[in-house]
Amino acid sequence: MSAAGESQGSGSGHGIFIAIEGPEGAGKSTQVRMLEAWLRERGRDPLVTREPGGTPVAEEVRRILLESDALSARTELLLMLASRSTLVEAVIRPALEAGRVVVTDRFHLSTLAYQGYGRALPFEDVVRMNRFATGGLEPDLTVVLDVEPDVGAARRTGRSGGPDRIERAGDAFHRRVLEAYRELAAADPRVARLDATPEAGEIHDRIVALLRERFGETFGAGEG
Ligand code: T5A
Fold it and tell me: 21 in ligand 1 pocket by Cβ < 6 Å?
């Protein structure tokens, strides 16, 4: 891995930090897997993780978050941030400092969309608390996969196990989450929104094109 090439990320040590975001069933995990394979084929050693989760402690927090029925919105926020702070400290920062590409399935935009807009917690408090949890770390590029809630829900039918606590939050909640992603993407040039309805291979090609556009020197702007 070329240290010089990896130095184009901003504010995150020497690596490049990419988050894949979006509502339920948008295809995030699918795109994270495809991006990881694409990076490995090019000789990179990406650090791939997910939220909530990604460390033993954070995976325990994830289980509570998704399985427990008795959580208030504020408790949910604090647990999401507890998971994030341990993941950032133990996994993401060290990987970025080692010059690696980090790809995460969800990061802070999920908190702004789900807890800030979805749960309607005071937005500036959510922003401030998230910043405290991350020490100010933000992805160099966030890709929001945009899909209507009914399409996302249909994609998840047939999956083993029923819907988790947050998936059961209701249509109005999931509509607010989608609108939040759209507003947040429009407000931040480091966030790119992609239509998530084409087939997965086409979306992957668009993500690769975005990487080349933003980090051309690292990912080979002219490469096929
Ligand atoms: N949360 C998380 C918060 O509230 N606040 C936070 O701060 C954070 C970090 C996490 C939950 O926590 C919440 C959000 C979530 O509710 P999760 O299980 O990680 O829970 O939930 P999701 O991230 O939504 O995971 P899903 O598996 O539901 O959705 P994905 O990852 O978006 O979708 P994926 O890739 O698993 O694909 C779903 C199905 O669609 C197919 C796949 O093959 C699969 O069958 N598919 C496509 N079908 C057609 N066209 C495409 N382009 C497709 N791409 C994938």
Answer: no
pTM over 0.85: yes
For the Cβ of 85 lying below 6 angstroms from any atom of ligand 1, the answer is: no
Peptide bond into 198 cis (omega under 30): no
Q: Which of 27, 59, 20 is nearest to 156 (CA)?
A: 27
Phi, psi of 133 (to 5 degrees): -65, -35
Q: Is the CB of 81 under 6 A from ligand 1?
A: no
- 3-state SS of 149-163 is HHHHHHHHCCCCCCC
In the predicted model, residues of the chain with pLDDT beneath 50 are: 1-11
Closest protein CA for atom 40 of ligand 1: 155
Q: Which tens digits make up the pLDDT trace of 120-163? A: 999 999 999 999 999 999 999 999 999 999 999 899 887 777 88
Atom index in ligand 1 nearest the CA of residue 196 equals 52
